[in-house]
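Reviewer 2 asked us to include a model.

Predict the structure of this chain.
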Amino acid sequence: MSTQATRVAVLSLIVENGANTTELNQLLHDASAYIIGRMGIPYRARGINIISVAIDAPQDVISALAGRIGALPGVTSKTAYSNVVTEA
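Predicted model (structure tokens):
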């Protein structure tokens, strides 16, 4: 992990296009050092997947990850930040 201050956040993802799962999983794997946990729910009746990712990382890492995930076609990403900041 980095030596800069970190924040706790939750990334909420809705995956409408299963063709991008490989890219999404690679992005999450690349950030695995920061990920606290993740939960995926397949919503078969609607043909989508809902994923929550809890993360403790520097602000720029969280923002960059959310941006890269949100840029994937068929994937929506929103981030909720806590006020919990851990100084380096």
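The CA atoms of residues 2 and 29 lie 16 Å apart. The chain has one domain: 6-86. We have added this to the supplementary material.
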